[in-house]
Amino acid sequence: MTVKIGVLGLQGAVSEHLQALEAVGAEGSTVKRPEQLAELDGLILPGGESTTMRRLMDRSGLFEAIKAFAEEKPIFGTCAGLILLAKKIEGQAVPHLGLMDINVRRNAFGRQVQSFETPLEIKGVADDFVGVFIRAPYILEAGPNVEVLSKYEDKIVAAREGRFLAAAFHPELTGDARFHRYFVELVEEAAARRP
Amino acid sequence: MAKVGTDRVKRGMAEMQKGGVIMDVVNAEQAKIAEEAGAVAVMALERVPADIRAAGGVARMADPRVIEEVMNAVSIPVMAKCRIGHIVEARVLEAMGVDYIDESEVLTPADDRYHIDKKAFTVPFVCGCRNLGEAARRIGEGASMLRTKGEPGTGNIVEAVRHLRLVNAQVRKIIGMSEDELMTEAKELGAPYDVLLEIKKRGRLPVVNFAAGGVATPADAALMMQLGADGVFVGSGIFKSENPEKYAKAIVEATAHYEDYELIAHLSKGLGEAMRGLDMAALDPSDRMQDRSE
Fold first, then answer.
1. B115-154 per-residue burial string, b: 16 or more CB within 10 A, e: under 16
2. What is the model's pLDDT at position B286?
């Protein structure tokens, strides 16, 4: 079966995710309005600016709609998407969607001049994945039910908690769709379990 | 093992700004208004283009104190402008940790012949273009992002529309050409051959291209998105309007939902007066900022 996966299309690297989904045989679509979530099996929160996406989610009604979607369907967040998923954001009283039991630090590696790329080992995905870190966050602490998938210099940069998946880097910028394949498999399993 | 300043990291930073609005600000207070409204980045300046135009004289890189103030005020990326060809202003901005440098015709050029060798920097650059020749030369010099030049500080969208339509038409032409025609096209455009080849292979520009120079209303921003811009720079439009907070939010929303006309109608209601604006015919040719470089 071909699963349908939406990419939150309010701002950010949307087309890159759609291309990666296409490369692994999923049906991708852009989500700008709450009703577009209805037909989907999974959702990607792309890289971009988390504050911008949050403002636009609030004004379009997508914030509440995505929270409801998350009650049974998988979500994959990259970079800004990881920040949107986190239950705790350092220095911020209230999180955004608050779906994953992780505490994150924004712009954790520094400003743009410190942005970098590096080979990564990602459990269940690849041992030679290129991680592109752009003003990236990392995970300071992960709860007991969170599986750490990848670390860079002892910092957690990819993790999974049940149906939620998060990466601090940008798999969508590499042309390497193996991380997307991992997510699509997760979405397929979740879809098969639903009545 | 980790590599900084790669093309992927520099161009990728601009990819993350897609669908967003980058706003000119002159202090911390404006920067916070921009961030709160949902700007994807701010451009820290001493004066917005309309005021640079009015002030005349030589326009230079902003006082580092202003840039620092803005950097300390917000968590979104901060851009700043250096003069065309001014290698040292660019190095100063890089040393300060600015996230993106705009080598900009809004400032008075420091070099009337050469642009900065942007490949030599870790910080990424955005440059203006009026046509594919300019766009490809800037990419060849290492620009990681493009924007239309438009005509800054006029509140008149006509030049930005002209530049975006022309670049996009020229890109379509390259994609439709056969490879053996590209060298002659490169000669005629004054464009590096390898950049044209990359455009043909990818079926698009290898870097994002934002609209800039004259965006004054939410409908202007949506128009540029509809014409194929990847995002929008708003210079004087926001903080020269009557109600900047409301204006900034409306432009952000209109850019994200550029095909939702009912929403844009709603956003445009009771916004107060937009910036006054200038007719191109009223502009003395020597005051045209877009002609300051090619």
1. bbebeebebbbbbbbbbbbbbbbbbbbbbbbbbbbbbbbb
2. 86
ipTM of the prediction: 0.96
Residues of A in contact with B15 (CB under 8 A): 13, 16, 47, 173
**Tokens linked to B35:** 């961030």
Catalytic positions of A are 79, 170, 172
Question: From CA B182, how far away is CA B178, in angstroms rounded?
Answer: 7
Q: Does A29 touch chain B (CB under 8 A)?
A: no
What Å distances lie between residue B57 and A192, B104, B135, B271, CA to CA?
A: 68, 16, 28, 33
Going by C-alpha positions, the residue among B204, B236, B202 that lies closest to residue B217 is B236
| A49-94 pLDDT, tens digit each | 999 999 999 999 999 999 999 999 999 999 999 999 999 999 999 9
pLDDT tens digits for range A39-48: 999 999 999 9
Q: How far is residue B183 from each of residues A11, A55, A194, B140, B180, measured CA to CA in Å?
A: 37, 47, 57, 15, 7
Nearest residue in B to A80, CA atom: B16
Q: What is the pLDDT of residue B237?
A: 85
Token pair, residue A67, equals 């929270």
**pLDDT at B273 (0 to 100):** 79
What is the structure's pLDDT at A164?
A: 98
Whether B81 is a known active-site residue: answer yes
Residues 59-98 of B with CB under 8 A from A: 75-77, 94, 97-98
Other C-beta atoms closer than 10 Å to the C-beta of B19 total: 30
By Cβ distance, the residue of B16, B35, B249 closest to A12 is B16
Quick check: B44 and B79 in contact, CB under 8 A? yes
Q: In chain B, which residue's Cα lies nearest the Cα of A173?
A: B12
Q: How many residues does chain B have?
A: 294
Residue B91, helix vs strand vs coil: helix
By the 8 A CB rule, do B225 and B148 touch? no
Instruction: Using a CB–CB cutoff of 8 Å, tell me whether A9 touches chain B.
Output: yes
Distance between CA A68 and CA B92 in Å, rounded? 48
Instruction: Express each pLDDT in A82-130 by its tens digit.
Output: 999 999 999 999 999 999 999 999 999 999 999 999 999 999 999 999 9
Separation of alpha carbons B287 and B294, rounded Å: 16
Q: What is the pTM for the complete model shown?
A: 0.97
In the predicted model, is pLDDT for residue B236 greater than 90? no
- Which of B18, B32, B81, B200 does the annotation list as catalytic? B81
Nearest to B62 by CA among B79, B81, B75: B81
